[in-house]
Amino acid sequence: MPLIRGGTLRDILNRGPLDTLTAWRYLREIGDGLQHAHDAGIVHRDLKPTNVLIHSDGRAMLADFGLAEAPASPRISRRSGSPSARRATWRRSR
Questions:
Q1: Chain centroid to CA 38: how far?
Q2: At 7, is the secondary structure helix, strand, or coil?
Q3: pTM for this structure?
Q4: CB of 43 closer than 8 Å to CB of 71
Q5: Taking the C-alpha atoms of 83, 85, 91 and 94 in order, what is their torsion angle to the nearest 10 degrees?
Q6: Are 60 and 29 in contact (CB under 8 A)?
Q7: What percent of the chain has pLDDT over 90?
Q8: In angstroms, rounded to a whole number, what is the distance separating the alpha carbons of residues 11 and 2?
Q9: Which residues are marked as active site?
Q10: Mean pLDDT of all residues in the chain?
């Protein structure tokens, strides 16, 4: 993944409201990124302004796919996730 130096969408929103054209451009770019992920069978599950990086050239990019999952695949992250999930795994293996 490339280094994105522009900050997050949250950083930009904290400076004040976006002009209409910029807001629509970000919305389109975020939507395109989500569509690309969905086409690959991936659901982001944590979309928020801090997970949208803004490139120094102004492009919006989705980040932090840590909670993402592919619905058709087993939930691999559950086994190493929360303490309760780890306890449940330990109990089943006894």
A1: 12
A2: coil
A3: 0.65
A4: yes
A5: -100
A6: yes
A7: 28
A8: 19
A9: 46
A10: 75
- Joined together, the tokens standing for residue 39 give 């086409």
Using pLDDT thresholds of 50, 70 and 90, give the confidence band for residue 76.
very low
Residue type, 10: R
Instruction: Please report which confidence band the pLDDT of residue 24 belongs to, taking 50, 70 and 90 as the band edges.
Output: very high
Q: Is the pLDDT of residue 92 over 50?
A: no
C-alpha span between 81 and 87 (Å, rounded): 10
The secondary structure of 22-75, three-state, reads HHHHHHHHHHHHHHHHHHCCCECCCCCHHHEEECCCCCEEECCCCCCECCCCCC
Residue 18 has pLDDT above 50, yes or no: yes
Q: Are 72 and 66 in contact (CB under 8 A)?
A: no
